[in-house]
Amino acid sequence: xxxxxxxxxxxxxxxxxxxxxLNLLAGVFILGLLVTSFVAEPFFVQGLxxxxxxxxxxxxxxxxxxxxxxxxxxxxxxxxxxxLLGIVGTVGSGDPFVSRNAERLRACAxxxxxLEGMHLLVGAVSAASPIDIGWSFSPIGxxxxxxxxxxxxxxxxxxxxxxxxxxxx
Length: 169
Description:
By secondary structure, the chain is mainly alpha-helical. It is built from 5 helices and no strands. Helix 4 (99-128) packs antiparallel against helix 5 (140-168). It starts with 6 loop residues before the first helix and ends with a helix. The model has no long low-confidence stretch (mean pLDDT 90).
């Protein structure tokens, strides 16, 4: 990131780096929880307060499914964050309208769509099991997907126009 870059770009760069590290740390944490749920199930159920008041079986299967979905979302979040970091890098260097950024934005759109699908899956698991995680539906993620696809097309068109202009000079 060059020194002449606006302060918010430097903040964005640092924040994305931190989020990448936190995402990987969350993946390790979720994997640890998932393994613990199999290796020490009674301890796990008691520790998370998953014992039911009516004496029925603990909702361990639903919890494990949600952890597996969470674990599967880690690589998708990594793709999203690293593509955004690449875009911030090109903006910082003063060259944002390149075809590579259009590809990055398209990848972000597909990744957010995948994450939204996983979010819906978590809702389905929550609805089908006695585990209550306070899940609710929001269309904002799907609107973000549409916005990212449109923005990707804008960047592709901007890159094409720039290439055409450079070809005439």
